[in-house]
Amino acid sequence: KLKDIGIIANEGAIYRNDFKTLQLFVAACELSSLSRAAERLGIASSAASRRIQLLEHDVRGPLLERLPHGVQPTPTGNTLLRFARDILHLIDRADHLLSEHQAGDAVSFV
User: Fold this and answer.
1) Residue 96 to residues 19, 25, 86, 101, 108, Cα–Cα distance (Å)
2) Contacts of 60 (CB under 8 A, 6+ apart)
3) Burial (0-12, 13-18, 19+ Cβ within 10 Å), 22
4) What pLDDT is attached to residue 109?
5) pLDDT of the residue at 8
6) Is 106 exposed, middle or buried, given 0-12, 13-18 or 19+ CB atoms closer than 10 A?
7) C-alpha atoms less than 13 angstroms from C-alpha of 48 in its C-beta half-sphere
8) What gap in Å lies between CA 89 and CA 85, rounded to an integer?
9) 55 contacts 73 by C-beta, under 8 angstroms
10) Residues near 101 by Cβ (< 8 Å), separated by ≥ 6?
């Protein structure tokens, strides 16, 4: 369940998955390559692989199908991908609005 992912809720879950892991997952899906996604985000390939394994453990199933030349999201991965994009978009929007607020600009959170 998504609520079991450490980044979304703390119901006994360890905070081992963070927003960078979501960025990594989204990038891997978009690039069809975990190694290229890791390179884009400045993460070692082995660390990227481990992050995805932990995320898959938290959702209790595979998110990426490993192919001879890359990866593609599983059906569960496609579901998470839609939410991950929304979550990352909201984080970017909040960061932008909070930066404006700190700069003294009038901010509308609507």
Assistant:
1) 16, 23, 15, 9, 11
2) 1, 4
3) buried
4) 55
5) 44
6) exposed
7) 20
8) 6
9) no
10) 107
- Token representation of residue 9: 């809720």
As a whole number of angstroms, the distance between CA 108 and CA 16 comes to 33
Q: Provide the residue type at 33 as one letter.
A: S
Give the pLDDT of residue 103: 73
The token pair at 20 is: 């960078």
Nearest to 78 by CA among 33, 29, 41, 37: 29
pLDDT profile of the chain (110 residues), mean per 10: 45 56 96 97 94 91 96 96 92 80 63
What's the pLDDT score for residue 1? 42
92 touches 19 (CB < 8 A): no
For residue 82, the model assigns a pLDDT of 96
Instruction: Name the packing angle between helices 19-31 and 34-41 (round to 10°).
Output: 130
Supply the pTM of this predicted model.
0.78
Quickly tell me which residue has 């990866």 as its tokens.
71
